[in-house]
Structures are given as structure tokens and as C-alpha cells.
Design a protein that fits this description.
With about 475 residues, this protein is mainly alpha-helical. The chain has one domain. About 60% of the residues lie in helices and about 5% in strands. It is built from 20 helices and 7 strands. The strands form 3 sheets. Strands 1-2-3 form a 3-stranded antiparallel sheet. It has a two-stranded antiparallel sheet with strand order 4-5. The chain has a two-stranded antiparallel ribbon with strand order 6-7. A hairpin with a 7-residue loop joins strand 1 and strand 2. Helix 15 crosses helix 17 and helix 16 runs antiparallel to helix 20. The longest helix has about 35 residues. InterPro entries: DUF2142_membrane. This is DUF2142 domain-containing protein. Keywords: Membrane, Transmembrane, Transmembrane helix.
């Protein structure tokens, strides 16, 4: 038992802090009051009826011609419950009661979903099972959605604990990343970004393993991260972080094996492009200043091919626009990644942002105190390869948003959100030099464990404070605001 506690104390503390905080967030936050949650509920709800793929349907916006939009078929009562609390407060008892009284419908309604319909369904399954369990237990749609949130939270915690337990170094950084208010609030909702962040952490943890000792289990990083890129293809280059260490035998063979795991996401994207993927509807607008064509052209939707033309008109924009976005919005992205709750409208106190930023940086410093015992050894060339993959992936994510979300010819990228960058942290820890052997040689074998505990302590303390702070913040916003 003592050995178990010594090896897994960070994972145990994660459960002790994240479980009660997550449960309270799942239960006190009104349904739909997490970013894009109604759309994610529709995706999970459609799976109840075996609808793995969305489909295209005709739709006529007010005052406009009929257009084709992506949609899923969802229980009408579930749709009503997913939106019913969007404008409610705890004091609005009439509205609360009317939403809670909604019943399951015999018919399914069309739910238009421009983004979630394209996401791979696997990470929605916990929420779907929760809805099904609630319905089987006699719950009405609203109550079943809260049950679904709890199932999503439990899946998030399970993946997170596995990541912390498996990692050979960087456990404090994984703890800090997955305890961030942003990550934990997503994990306690139907938004699959929570599970995407946790699965990225699991991938990073598997890649800390020494391939000479843990060759088979280490390769589980590939199917794990494939689940991420099936929903978020721009992160796909990070799959090749599995090639580290580059000096290991059979690099070409390992590269081909890794490339094979890129095929399922490509196939999924091809299927989605054929059956459901459509550009986002916009009001009529003229293109922005970067449009190289006729400025009098009228657009009614986003247009990836048109924005690709914008980028190719001056290829340097492929780099300058993403870098410019980070320079202009770096602090906003940082605070948003730490915690911008609700529909990115509920901020934390300034002390919370400062404390969490310090905690993450301290935990990153703890990676440097890690040892190579059972972990992949650190080499400068491998760290360089990881940094190149991360930098290229950041550019890919931001460009993908510009192509698919921003208006044609926009002068700057405008769509990225802080939570998108949390998936990079578990990979960045692979690039941090580790001095554990030197520390142990100078101060004794227990020094590295002490350093790990000391650098993880800020995150542990703040996570404990958040057990009261975060649920209280949501209660004040929705019950007293």
C-alpha cells in the first residue's frame, strides 16, 4: 500500500479534488450554459438512435432562399431541454419548472448542427449512455441530461487518472492542465473538448514511456490520439511525436506505422465531406480587405476555398497570420485557456488567473526535475522535433479556423479559443530538458520526488480552493446574477 501511494499520490489527489468540483459544476451549471453545449447534446442525443453520421437537409432562413444545411435527428423533448435553461436563473422558478416538465417525444426533430455533426462519435458515447441510463431510470429529458453530464465527467476523470498514473515524468503538469477550470468545466459537460484534452494528456503520458521497456503499451498513443484527430484533424501532425526518440531503431518503419494511423481520420473527413459537411451560414457580406478578387462579390457563407485563395495570394500569410494572431491575442488566449466559463462570458478573479498561471509554470519546472528511469530519455534533437511539430500544429489549427470559420478575406484570424491550446501542453512537456539524474546524484535519490511534490504543490492547493470557488462562482452567476 505504501508503495502504491508513493507512486500514485498525484492521481489520488486529482480524484480527491476534481471529482467533487466536477460533480458540483455538472449539477449547478444550467444545461446549455457551457460553450456550444446544445450542439454537443444534439450529437450525443442522435447516437441514442444509432445516427453515427449527420445528413444534409433543405432549410429556408427568414427572408432568404432555401439552402442546404447539416443536421441530425434528435428527440424533440431532448432538444427542448438542451435549450430550456439557456436564459434561466435559479429565481425563475416558473421557467425552471416548465423545462423540467418536458417529456420524451415520440417523434424526432431536425437539429441543425454546423460543427458537431462532423465530429467522430466515440467521445460522445459516455454522454449518450448517461442519457440512456437516465431515461431507463424514468428521468425526464432535463434530468437525463444532468445524468449524461455525470457520465461525461466520469469518463474525463478515468482518462485523466490513467494519464497521471502512466506518465513517467510530468505528472504534476498533467494534474495542473486537467485541473484548470476551463478543462474541468468542459469535462463536466457534453462538450467533447474536455475529453479531447484528457485524451491528449493520455497520449502525452504514453509517450513518456521508454520505448525499449514499454514498446507495446507506448504504441497505444497512436489509437488514443487518432480519436482526437478524427474530430480535430488540424492536430494531426502531433501524431508523429510518437517517433521520438528519433535515434531508436527502424525509424522509417515506425514512421510508416504512424502514418497508417492517420488514415482513419482522413477517411472520416472524406465521409463527412460527402454526407454532411457544409460551410457556415452568414448574412450577405462583401469580402474583407485581403480578398484578391472582385471586392463587389457577395458571399452568404464561409468559403474555405475562397480563403485558401486569400492565403495563396501571398504565401507568407500562412505563417504571418497565425503568428500575428498570437502576438495580438496571446494574453486573452492564456486567460481563456485557464478559465473562461459558460459561453466564454464568465471570467475568474484576477487572483485565480495569476495563481493558475504560476501553478502551470511551476509544474512545468517540475518536469525538468524528472528522471529517465522508465521514461524516454531527453535529447536535444528530439526536443527540437517536438517543438517543430507543436509549432506547425498551432499554425495548422489557426489556419483551419481561418479557412472554415472566418469571413472571406478577413484581415486577421478571429476564431481560435484558449481551450484549443490546452491539447499542446502534454506534448510540450516532452521537449523540456530533465535534470533528475543530476539532482539525484548531488542531493540523493529522494530529491527528485521532493522536487516533483514541491512543484506540483501550487496546482494541488489551487485545485483544492476551486472545490468551493468554482461552484460558488457558477451559483452566483446563475442564481444571484
Amino acid at each position: 500500500m505504501r508503495r502504491f501511494l508513493r507512486s500514485h499520490w498525484i492521481a489520488i489527489l486529482f480524484v480527491v479534488t476534481a471529482l467533487p468540483t466536477g460533480l458540483r459544476l455538472a449539477l449547478v451549471t444550467p444545461i446549455g450554459q457551457v460553450a456550444d453545449e446544445p450542439a454537443h447534446i444534439a450529437r450525443a442525443g442522435a447516437l441514442l438512435h444509432g445516427e453515427l453520421l449527420g445528413h444534409r437537409v433543405p432549410f429556408r432562413p427568414p427572408g432568404r432562399n432555401t439552402v442546404i444545411v447539416p443536421a441530425t435527428m434528435v428527440d424533440a423533448g431532448l432538444i427542448g431541454a438542451s435549450f430550456g435553461e439557456m436564459n434561466e436563473t435559479c429565481g425563475d422558478q416558473t421557467s425552471v419548472a416548465s423545462t423540467a416538465a418536458l417529456r420524451w417525444a415520440k417523434a424526432r426533430n431536425i437539429d441543425i448542427d454546423f460543427n458537431t455533426v462532423q465530429y467522430f462519435p466515440a467521445l460522445y458515447l459516455p454522454g449518450t449512455l448517461g442519457i440512456a441510463a437516465g431515461r431507463a431510470a424514468g428521468q425526464r429529458p432535463l434530468a437525463a441530461l444532468f445524468t449524461g453530464r455525470i457520465f461525461m465527467l466520469l469518463a474525463y476523470l478515468a482518462v485523466a487518472v490513467a494519464a497521471i498514473a502512466i506518465a513517467r515524468f510530468g505528472r504534476g503538469l498533467i494534474f495542473a492542465t486537467l485541473s484548470l477550470p476551463m478543462a474541468l468545466s468542459l469535462g463536466a459537460s457534453f462538450n467533447q473538448d474536455g475529453l479531447l484534452i484528457a485524451t491528449s494528456a493520455l497520449t502525452g503520458a504514453l509517450l513518456t514511456l521508454d520505448p525499449a521497456r514499454y514498446r507495446r503499451i507506448r504504441w497505444l498513443a497512436l489509437p488514443a490520439f487518432t480519436l482526437v484527430i478524427c474530430s480535430k484533424p488540424p492536430y494531426g501532425l502531433l501524431l508523429f511525436a510518437a517517433l521520438v526518440p528519433l535515434a531508436a531503431p527502424r525509424l522509417v518503419r515506425r514512421g510508416l506505422t504512424t502514418a497508417v494511423w492517420a488514415l482513419p481520420p482522413l477517411l472520416w473527413v472524406a465521409v463527412m465531406a460527402h454526407v454532411s459537411l457544409m460551410p457556415y451560414l452568414r448574412g450577405s457580406y462583401h469580402p474583407g480587405p485581403l480578398w484578391p478578387g472582385n471586392p463587389a462579390t457577395i458571399f452568404h457563407t464561409t468559403d474555405p476555398l475562397a480563403n485558401l485563395r486569400v492565403l495563396l495570394a501571398e504565401p507568407a500569410r500562412i505563417v504571418t497570420m497565425p503568428v500575428g494572431f498570437l502576438v495580438a491575442n496571446g494574453w486573452i488566449m492564456t486567460t481563456s485557456a485557464i478559465g473562461s466559463l459558460g459561453w466564454l462570458s464568465i471570467g475568474l478573479s484576477n487572483w485565480a488567473y495569476g495563481a493558475w498561471l504560476f501553478a502551470v509554470l511551476a509544474a512545468a519546472l517540475g518536469v525538468a526535475a524528472g528522471r529517465d528511469d522508465g521514461g524516454v530519455r531527453w535529447f536535444a534533437r528530439d526536443a527540437g522535433a517536438i517543438l517543430i511539430l507543436v509549432a506547425a500544429s498551432v499554425i495548422a489549427v489557426e489556419l483551419a479556423i481561418y479557412l472554415s470559420w472566418d469571413d472571406v478575406g478577413a484581415a486577421a484570424i478571429s476564431g481560435p479559443q484558449g481551450r484549443y491550446y490546452l491539447l499542446f501542453i502534454p506534448f510540450l512537456m516532452l521537449a523540456i530538458p530533465r535534470l533528475g539524474e543530476r539532482i539525484a546524484g548531488r542531493f540523493g535519490p529522494g530529491a527528485t520526488g521532493f522536487a516533483e511534490a514541491l512543484t506540483a504543490l501550487p496546482a494541488i492547493v489551487i485545485a483544492a480552493i476551486d472545490m468551493a470557488y468554482l461552484p460558488g462562482l457558477m451559483l452566483r452567476r446563475f442564481c444571484l446574477g
